[in-house]
Amino acid sequence: MPTTKASIMNQLNRNFARLKPVGIREFDAQASAVPGIVKLTLGEPDFNVPDAMKQAAIDSITSNDSHYAPAVGTAKLRAAIADFLKDRYQLDYDPNGEIAVTIGATEGIYAALSALINPGDEILVATPTFPLYMAVTTMLGGQPVEIDTSDHDFVLTPDQLKETIAAHPRAKALILNYPSNPTGVTYSAQQVEELAMAVKNTDLVVIADEIYSELVYDGQHTSIAKFIPEQTLILNGASKSHAMTGYRIGFIAGPRELMGPVSAVSGMMITSATDSAMAAATAAFGTEAGKAATQQMKAAYQERRDFLVAALTKLGFETATPNGAFYLFAKIPASAGNDDVAFATKLAEEGRVAVIPGSYFGAGGQGYLRLSYATSMDNLKTAVARIADFLKED
Ligand SMILES: Cc1ncc(COP(=O)(O)O)c(C=O)c1O
Q1: For residues 93 and 356, what is the distance between their CA atoms, to the nearest angstrom?
Q2: DSSP-derived 3-state class of residue 328
Q3: Per the database record, which ranges form the Aminotransferase class I/classII large domain (predicted)?
Q4: How many CB atoms lie within 10 A of CB 232?
Q5: Which of 30, 196, 274, 357 is in Cβ range 3.0-4.6 Å of 344 for a Cys bridge?
């Protein structure tokens, strides 16, 4: 096996050295080594891909659908996405020029930020949040500016945003993710509109990661693009709504002029997404079966959420208002201290329950734990019983 010539390691992109360690996967891997551990760590659905989507992928393969697709994705999938955005969120996007298919929302994040960032550019990020935004911004030579939302039930307020914009007048973009990973918190239509109004008179591009938009439990999801489409890039995809994480299909929608450069960067990275996965995503976004599958999964998540919130509250945890996604962000009971990494490590090793320390998600996450309820009710019940025992012994 080759070993790298040592001096070559000095030639790397300097931005690697600026990256902060993320830790989620490492923590999960360490915890997985504990025999019999129950894991509430994973940010992916525990359901299988619905049958109609599987069949669409199979049909695509058997019909030799095996050639390069357009860089922005197949026309059928873009049309299905346009219909989905219209039907679910009353948004109007032209499948020709205003929608691009990506390799998961992950690649969409990279493409959107690549199209915007010059070295040193600031990107505003409401935290705690999915750490990839900070990592990609840093990797592209930009500077993430974290806006800690923990004092406002993890919702970015217009005043906070205005203050941040005043302090960082040259920032290029605002990244918002709701429903939120890691908090499960989402924004009401009014909160979204107020934020949009705070952005409207600026040149900020809002990168709205709405990957959990189909998993809102009480009320409706409102996209910020409804109010400021001229400066919003929506990111979404099939990973969470249709349990299709491994199919790697996401999309970006935005105004034509902005989508030109974003799609160009995406094309440079991927050429195109995989044909069979796009066929499956067309079934996900474009058929009644796709819609019904999401509704079924959502009902199961909602039942689990209700169980877990009630059980954790009984045990003395306060949780952020969990109205969406499949996460709870729980404050460690005061009697157990404020060190989330130490608490989560001990809970994994001694209590045999794995959760993710809140501080891994940026400013405002200290003293919290992220619990994913994308796992069976049996696992959740076992986890709660073990957490109760662990707190008694601690
Ligand atoms: C907020 C958020 N955005 C994006 C992603 C990545 O999604 P995808 O599988 O579509 O790349 C995740 C995955 O956990 C996420 O939590």
Answers
A1: 37
A2: strand
A3: 37-387
A4: 25
A5: 357
* Of the options 3.40.640.10, 3.40.50.2000, 3.40.50.720, 3.40.50.410, the CATH number for the domain spanning 51-290: 3.40.640.10
Is 250 touching ligand 1 by the criterion CB < 6 Å? yes
Coil vs helix vs strand at 51: helix
- The whole-number average pLDDT for the span 189-214 is 98
Q: Is the dihedral of CA 317, 322, 328, 330 positive or negative?
A: negative
Contact 356, 24 (CB under 8 A): yes
Please, what is the end-to-end C-alpha distance for the chain in angstroms? 47
Gap between the Cα atoms of 360 and 368, Å rounded:
10
Nearest to 174 by CA among 160, 158, 161: 161
Measure Cα distances from 292 to 48, 55, 91 in Å: 14, 16, 21
Ligand 1 atom showing the smallest separation from residue 238 Cα: 10
Q: Give the model's pLDDT for residue 25.
A: 83
Give the amino acid at 281.
A
Confidence of residue 21 (pLDDT cuts 50, 70, 90): confident
pLDDT in tens, 228-248: 999 999 999 999 999 999 999
* Angle CA 140–145–150, to nearest 5: 135
Q: Are 230 and 255 in contact (CB under 8 A)?
A: yes
| For the chain, domain boundaries | 10-48+291-393, 51-290
pLDDT beyond 80 at 22 = no
Q: Which two tokens stand for residue 152?
A: 């406002």
Is any ligand 1 atom within 6 A of the Cβ of residue 22?
A: no
Q: What CATH number labels 10-48+291-393?
A: 3.90.1150.10
Q: Which two tokens stand for residue 392?
A: 């008694």
| Closest CA to ligand 1's atom 7 | 105
130 ligand 1 Cβ < 6 A: yes
